[in-house]
Design a protein that fits this description.
By secondary structure, this protein is α/β, with parallel strands linked by helices. It contains 17 helices and 33 strands.
Length: 664
Amino acid sequence: MRSVSKTKQSAKIRNSNKTAYICAPTHQNCKPIHIKQKIFIEFGATTLYIVKSLYLYKSTDMRLLFIIVLIISGFHTVFSQNEEISIIPKPVSIEFTDGQFVLDEHVRFFIGFQPELYKPCKAFIDYFRFEIGFHIDIDRAKEPGYSYINVETSDTAEWCGEEGYHLEVTEEEINITALKPAGIFYALQSLKQVLLYSEFTPRGFAKNIFYAPACIIHDKPRFQWRGMNLDCCRHFMEKDFVKRYIDLLAFHKMNVLHWHLTEDQGWRIEIKKYPKLTEIGAWRIEEDGTRYGGYYTQDDIREIVAYAEDRFITVVPEIEMPGHSMAALAAYPHLSCTGGPFEVENRWGVFKDIYCAGNDSVFAFLKDVLSEVMVLFPSEYIHIGGDEAPKYRWENCPKCQKRIKDEGLADEHELQSWFITKIEEFLNDNGRKLIGWDEILEGGLAPSATVQSWRGFEGAFEAASHNHTAIVSPTSHCYFDYGVGTTNLEKVYSFEPIPDGLPTDKHRYILGGECNMWSERAPQELVDSKVFPRLCAISEVLWSPTTDRSFDEFHERMQSHYSLLDKLGVEYGFENEPIIIEGLSNTAGAQFLVRMFPGQEGLTIHYTVDGTEPDEYSSEWKNAFYSDTSFILKAIAIDGDNKSEIYTRRFQMHNAFCHPYQLN
């Protein structure tokens, strides 16, 4: 038996393999009690650790016994709550069993002789070390006195595929098996969600308690491409913000960050051979005269790409061509059809000046740029845009017209196809594949290009029908720059990436989907409220099977998931348009009838009728009211710290109000 220290007067219970001891040096008369409940408690510097099937030696001092009994009874309810904790995206199957596993500093990872499994464990370890405050070691051989999270990859886990996993939680240990390290990583994301649900800090205690209910999970993704497009051009996003979004994507088992890096309004990637791209192209003069912009150095990009790789996220860069290129043309105007001069755009929209397809120096420039890009990004795919490229300049450019004639092309649409094919050949020669928006279908699709379908599902249908891979991200479901009045949470959850009518044998060409966060009207501080909670819905669409899919069931789980988003510091927005205003006329009394409705549960509406801005101290909406005078209604929806924009509706009384009229 472990010797009892006589220097400490406070009681301690410690895990010691199959025996537990109570250290009470002033009370030597002890007898064993069999403990059937596993808990972990901190009393400031005093630790109590009670494990099922261990023996506790109690003191004959009834005061000490009373403390122990109080703790056991008081914390039984803690471990009984949340027996079924939801995970987003929903696993293929989950079965809850009896008991709980406690996570504390007595838990370690066991990876055996598979050093490659250090990587999928690292992000999990880092989170609990830096965010929670205790370190979880990784062992290659087990030591007594510890509980273990056992992780292994095995050829027997073929069902898992590249990213699936089996996860079993018992009272004594956690076992994770996968075919590949990515599966281990995603199992740990599920475990992390479960543990964060259970985080509990008793009043006056120094550390948090985490536990996972005993369960068995089998899980794997439906689609291999589960992405988010982040536009850092219209508004620049800081490096740490991009890394934060990588964490949030990984937490929801998304595996692609499509990074939009060049645009009319800003060039955001350092290219050593062309320094003016960032000296000039990264900055624009706003209408008020201020200078706005920023860019990522190549060191920044290496750091972000490595950070993403550690979280099993592929960063796919987008270098726009031939359109959306005003920032590059401002830096190097000779690449245009007219020779410029140009300025980096400070307006949103589509602009007629694009790269000159008849100028050989354009292709030398783009190949130089892509060569540096490929060094920085190891991704299999490079996105080249290809969307919204007006043909006006090409139609009126002698060089472009000569190119059409020399290449035997029919028109400017075939000239764009020729342009894209030239770039694709260069990428293929360097071991990469090309992705373009669905406009690259016009004039003929490049031989091995992947189509990203955004103007509906037709582009994906056409690509897959011709044995080309496709990524589906239609404006109808996946554009998160749109407000929730247009694309609400339920609309996103209804997204089905497989186009209607696509033959079953062509389904394999649909790689998956993406949500798109264009930033024209979303600077960095608004991105959270645009992306969440809608990213949670699309993560489940792209990961989980369609069997028994129900928005109502997902919505119920989402209400619990908000607590996890709170822990992660996500300033999420609303599920629906937060306020619905109805204004009706009462013809009998020549009055307005005004009604308002919250767009989702949990919202309170505050309003004013005198034109002032409402806040949480303004009148709270309760019932409809009548008015026989003109007024301006302003309303705001509030849910805790989450506030909507201010909704304004003018009600104007006039002589014709509620009177019949005739148009002549």
